[in-house]
Amino acid sequence: MDSILLQILNGLDKGSAYALIALGLTLIFGTLGVVNFAHGALFMIGAFCAVSLQRLLNLSFETIDETQKDFLGNPLKVKTPYVEAWFGPDVGAWIIDWAVPLALLIAIPIMLAVGYIMERGLIKHFYKRPHADQILVTFGLAIVLQEIVKYFFGANPIQTPPPDALNGVANIGAALGMDIVYPVWRIVYFCFATLIIGGIFAFLQFTTFGMVVRAGMADRETVGLLGINIDRRFTIMFGIAAAVAGLAGVMYGPINPPNYHMGMDFLVLSFVVVVVGGMGSLPGAVLAGFLLGILESFASTTWATTTIPGINQIIIYLVAIIVLLTRPRGLMGRKGVMED
Amino acid sequence: MAILEVKNVAKRFGGLQALSDVNLSVKENSVHAIIGPNGAGKSTLLNCLVGKLIPDTGSVMFDGQSVLGRAPFEINQMGISRVFQTPEIFGELSVMENMMIPIFAKRDGAFRMHAYETVANEKSVVEAAENMLEEMNMADKRHMNAASMSRGDKRRLEIGMCLSQEPRLLLLDEPTAGMARADTNNTIDLLKQISDERDITIAIIEHDMHVVFSLANRITVLAQGTPLVEDDPQNIRGNPKVREAYLGESA
Amino acid sequence: MFGLDKKDTSLLIVVALLTLLAPFILNPFPTDSGLAQFNAGYPDLMQRFIIFGIFAVGFNILFGLTGYLSFGHAAFLGVGSYSAVWMFKLLSYNILPAIALAVVVAGLFSLLIGYVSLRRSGIYFSILTLAFAQMSFALAYSVLSNPKFNLTNGETGLQVYNDDPQILQGANAPDLPHLFGLSMRSTYTMEVGPWAFDFNAGYYVCAVIMMIAFYLAIRIFRSPFGMMLRAVKSNQQRMNYTGLNTRPYTLAAFVISGMYAGLAGGLMAAMDPLAGAERMQWTASGEVVLMTILGGTGTLIGPVLGAGFIKYFENIFSKINDSVLHGWFAFLPDGLEDAVVTIIHPFVGKGWHLTLGILFMLVVIFLPGGLVEGGQRLAKWIRNRGKTEDKTSGKTEPAE
Q: Is the whole-model pTM more than 0.80?
């Protein structure tokens, strides 16, 4: 029982990332009708926002500390981060410690801007072109973005630790009388993902803006005929989708150290998630994201991997193939969306 | 003799009863028009005939064989060709190639792996395509990209493609919708000529009364998913029920 | 000739001449000159040109004709390589059975994947093939490589070991891939003054096979079957209502292109008897898409050009480092020289993928027809310029 719960929990953090990326993909696909192969790159850029902020905060100047001597008797050079000099050692250290959550603040404007530029600068020109062209140009863009990041940050994964307070493990089963020890940050990540997903759904459900967008997803032409400027709203939705992917990336850093190809790794799986959930269905994307994440976690148990070696690496694809063969529209796909 | 026999066909989409209790019989070598106001179920009925939709109940027999449950390509191979509301042609291919494809389909069936032959060497197909282009007055456009032609020409090409298969039944879905008057009249003349000269049955779904009364020798009026009357054109004109269904709606 | 019309025959002859004379054409610079680094006439690179050319020509039969964009073709290449190496391990180092098996196995594998993937079209199809390829990669990388059942040898890659059966390997046969005793590595170097030209057996085997593959591709393009495939791309609705079943057509195209990929994979193993899972990764699938688009989708010569272009510049660009750049721009004033080198630096050497990505985007945006369309536009522009000049001169003459 405990171990089953633990496996479900294990699946939640990866599932959260899948769900967030798949949600953004679906939003873009549903509103703009564009298949965005560069969406994984947005996830990656988000993660590197955290890396950049961390580096920025750690920028230091050197001073000579006369009170300390090295073993040759020379005064010791001491590095002091600027933030510690500005805000005092305590606050400064706290800021550096909380670099990853703080990165959310800078990531929001950055991701919105990236999304806006991407949509206005490139994707806008591809609405009328065939899907194959959209795939190809965003695929090219994904390569470019990932190579730029590689140029500046190198090819190796970069450690981005969570704040000390949220590091380590907690026994979250204690209240239920069970023994489930689980990393705190992963729980944070899951709560964060739930919050964002809830926020997006609430935004679409309860605001006029969201209502228009939903109507546009269902029937773009009619909404356009009503004299509503649907394109501008869709552009904003693209920005939001980019921000969601970016924030998912920021917070994922402490779980898996970011590297330049993490976006592509997640993108392929997120596409599978979207297809399993049902193209164009937001609840489907979220549901399938968590389901596949949990499934993957169960397939990674020693029992599963000894029975069928490597099953954890192919389980998602197997499920996707079975789903597509039995329910071609995915779990919650609507009729008529991308039928041909 | 009836070539197409529709019996008790009903089709429901969710809460909407699109067709109910449709009975229709199209006589061989006739020009049978199916008319009716918007939303009468004309297109649904047509889609049931060509295999795009499967009716909930009832039967559709073509030449003594049921078409239900067959894919559109199988139904075409049985001898039913369809002309679409907006011309469906192979836009990126040349006019000549457009004309050859249905002839290949007629000769070789639904699939043939003729990957090592050369199109230019298929003399009989080339000749048949050329003849049909000649007949459609399009021989001079043979090397043109089909997409670059005028709408009237595309329509002509589509009809020619269907005819080249020598179908027993030609289905037309509002063939003159969105056409200029001149193009409409050309199309009427072409269809008239086809029905006069060929051993073919034509079923036509049409909104434009001018087209219907110029062509049809039998008319079925569909209203709210069910046939109202079936009669000869002169009787339809004066039928009060038809006037009500039509004028009541459009007035 | 060979059942081709005049235009196609001349195309085939041009391609044949280019491939046969490639050792000369690709080595235009004397070996000791500074430009020798732009030479591409060494066996390893020339083999890659040809092998990826075959891969792209096959991919183009699917994508160029039917418009179905597969993102998983590298899986078939990988399967081809694995089959070939198994043939080396079990039978002998003779490449013929190895290549034959590679084609057959890749064909069967693509039949399986195609049967499932082709139930959907458009974007679904692309994602399905991508998922299949990633699954194959995972299978090859870990699942099918365990002590109980080791088909792929995982991370290390599949290779021939001394204790392999090799039941047909003759006592005197070379201990490397060969064609009835002719080793694929044997190279004859012809030295003419300062020039050196390499004639490699492996390259010529590849070249001959490519010419056959290219000839067959022409036949397919010109056949009624090829016309049907283009019709699938143009209008599936009309296909269905014309009595044609699109599924077997697309499946046949998929299998044919899978067999081409298997052939390429088999040749790859024949040139270097090793097969690794990374060959199946989706980036490798992306590469063949790039080649085809860059060269010109749906054209005969385009994919070959694209493959050559990408492999050539990949090779050249990776060699350019900062000192080479400084050498080139030495004529500039110091500050400017450094600035120029700094600007170019991210795009060369290890930055080749960045250049490739940008180039690819530019092609998709501005030149969807690829290099072939670019060439046609250029030719048209030159012709038109000639004409307008004629016109102006024609106009001015009477005035004089």
A: yes
